[in-house]
Amino acid sequence: MRTLLLALSILFFALSILLFSGIVLAGDLTIKVSLVNEQGVGKEIGTITAADSKHGLILTPTLNDLTPGLHGFHVHDKPDCSHALKEGKAVPALAAGGHYDPENTGKHEGPYGNGHLGDLPALYVSGDGKATLPVLAPRLKVADIEGRSLIIHAGGDNYSDMPAPLGGGGSRAACGLVK
Question: pTM for the complete prediction?
Fold first, then answer.
């Protein structure tokens, strides 16, 4: 009986630390991410964990095999990483639709602006092709991204439609379905 009480006390103490530190266990999602190309979905390159915090949605990548540098990172409308045709040409992950924009703002202003909610902070990929630095999306929660997709673009993002539309991130390089 003493051992059981001790174990329960330790468990209660550990849970208290987690709860009061702002870490949320319930509702976390693990999203599998794969490379995409004109033929469709390719090899799996890791995961992104989505968790709510008091400051917004935290997305923590554990990804490999990406091109080093900054990459545009967005929530897209549809949970589909398939290629689709645009003007008769196959486009990687085009079936994911456009950036998540429930208010129909039509504006690309970044994660801290007043534009669409699909803008996430840029994803940093180290020289060895790994992405492990978390990003914070202050205007989103896990529930907002469920039933959508996460897209990593080939290039960076300037959070503007000038000089190139949608931040100039270029083609879709990787995709994950948020289930």
Answer: 0.82
